Automatic annotation (TrEMBL):
The DHHC domain is required for palmitoyltransferase activity. It is an enzyme of class 2 (transferase). It is found in: Membrane. This is Palmitoyltransferase.
Length: 270
């Protein structure tokens, strides 16, 4: 639990109260986050430098593939960064029940005598659907799980960025496998240069492994979005009102909009 001194002195970076920049200092999470960036950049360098450029050069089609793959890598990395450095929905230190927050002084005195839900670990007010993360050491609203790959909890504040990250990793994996297949399909009957063969094999293994992993994650997250219940909610047998896609992606309705696919902050019209 954050000490009294930590609460009075906001840190520049961390997961405590009133920090300037939300970031988790968990060593395992930092290693996993670095690995995530390395794998995306490795795929970018291998696809562009070993697969596309030696095959198509700087032809219009080659430049198109390079631009698309590089753009997808950029979106994946930005989504990862936003998922990692965005407050996932941690309950503020000053949070109070709605009835208490909008009450008069006399009502506050009466309501404070009543017990309201508090966290046993951080001893703060615990709103409905908030769960305590032992790694972030904070209660997070609509917490789904703590993901080491983004080194952060996945909650109300960064759910969209997490979804975009796994979506773009899946698309990159499928795109890389498609390019490799068409590049080397003719090698069955013809001899092909062996330059970068080991890197291509590693790329195939990476694309298959993380393509399947993110596909499973997207199937699970589809259930989370359509039912409105997170993994922790399901484990505890809790139910909640489902606001659908708008709760995750923002906007005024559930109609698809371009900002759904971009790692920009969600917004709700007043």
């Amino acid at each position: 639990m954050p000490s009294l001194e930590q609460r009075k002195r906001p840190a520049a970076c961390g997961t405590g109260f009133n920090v300037r920049l939300w970031c988790n200092t968990d060593p395992c999470g930092i290693v996993c986050a670095v690995i995530s960036w390395f794998l995306v950049l490795y795929a970018e360098c291998t696809v562009v430098g070993v697969v596309v450029y030696p095959w198509m050069g700087l032809s219009p089609l080659g430049l198109l593939h390079i631009a698309i793959f590089t753009g997808l890598c950029f979106l994946a990395l930005v989504s990862h960064g936003k998922a990692m450095l965005t407050d996932p929905g941690a309950v503020p230190e000053s949070a109070l029940p709605l009835a208490l927050a909008h009450a008069s002084k006399d009502e506050i005195a009466r309501l404070e005598e009543q017990r309201y839900r508090t966290c046993r670990r951080c001893r703060q007010f615990k709103p409905g659907r908030a769960h305590h993360c032992s790694i972030c050491d904070r209660c997070v609203i609509k917490m789904d799980h703590h993901c080491p790959w983004v080194n952060n909890c996945v909650g109300l504040g960064n759910h969209k960025f997490f979804l975009l990250f796994i979506f773009y990793v899946f698309v990159l994996s499928a795109y890389a496998l498609t390019l490799v297949f068409f590049r080397y399909a003719k090698c069955i009957n013809e001899s092909c240069p062996t330059y970068g063969a080991i890197r291509v094999v590693c790329l195939i293994l990476e694309a298959v492994l993380f393509g399947l992993f993110t596909m499973c994650m997207m199937c699970d997250q589809y259930s989370v979005i359509t039912t409105g219940t997170t993994q922790i909610d399901r484990l505890k047998g809790e139910t909640a009102d489902n606001l659908g896609l708008r709760e995750v992606f923002g906007g005024s309705d559930c109609k698809f909009a371009l900002h759904w696919l971009l790692p920009v902050n969600i917004w709700f019209p007043m």
